[in-house]
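Human: Respectfully, please carefully check these tokens:
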Amino acid sequence: MASAKDPVCGMTVDTDRTPASAEYEGKTYYFCTPGCRAAFLADPNKYAS
């Protein structure tokens, strides 16, 4: 299982099974829910590392 940290809530998510992801500045971010994805897309500079 490949995992990543949801940049919005900090939850660890399975990158193969996550319901939401987004590309930003050439990097893929993974989210635990579409709600976290929406929060990220509303202000990506706040959450992008």
Notes: Residues 5 and 28 are 11 Å apart (CA to CA). The first strand starts at residue 3 and ends at 5. The chain has one domain: 3-47.
